Automatic annotation (TrEMBL):
Lineage: Eukaryota, Sar, Stramenopiles, Ochrophyta, Bacillariophyta
Protein name: Rieske domain-containing protein
Domain Rieske: 60-171
Pfam families on file: Rieske_2
Keywords attached to this entry: 2Fe-2S, Iron, Iron-sulfur, Metal-binding, Nitrate assimilation, Oxidoreductase
Amino acid sequence: EHRVRPHLLIKPFCNNFTYKMKTAVAATLIASAAAFAPQSANTRTNTALEAGKLASKMQYVPCIPVDKLPAPGSATSGVAGGLAICIAVDPSGSVYALGDKCPPVNQPLSFGRVDGNSIEDPVLGTKFSLKTGEVVGAWCPSGIGKLLGGLFDPIGVPTYPVKKKGANIEVQVDVNAKANFESQYWSGVLDAQGKSNGKYY
């Protein structure tokens, strides 16, 4: 009677599974990058709802409690005015506020490593200036970053004024930015159902 040895079946299965997982991860990263590719202005819908955008309104709002401030040389995440914020502390103890979305695929910048006057994207390796948010050095220098970074022009992250007030770290943001962004989304949903003025086509 001929018997198949179990270890001979496991090895091809593991190789096949590993290949499928690597393919799935690569496909996900490429799809994520494509989703954030810049679109031309003429592809945007123009509806009555977009005409009602709110004026920019800059003000300081609480982001994180002072007791949650990260140690020098590290970062954490917070929310200010509905915006995702990365609060970073340089080795000397100075506090900075930046947008918490790393271009080009928007992973959290707050997961990155603070290195002197910059913070490094934890996945693609791009370093951003803590003061200006601009790219410092190479754009997307890591392994997968070289593949994805070539699809996009280098772009920095926004920076925000930050201060300590009472028990909170406050960040100055446009408190109408989130509402203006969402107004574009809702107008698209309404256009899919009917006209943005409530009537049907």
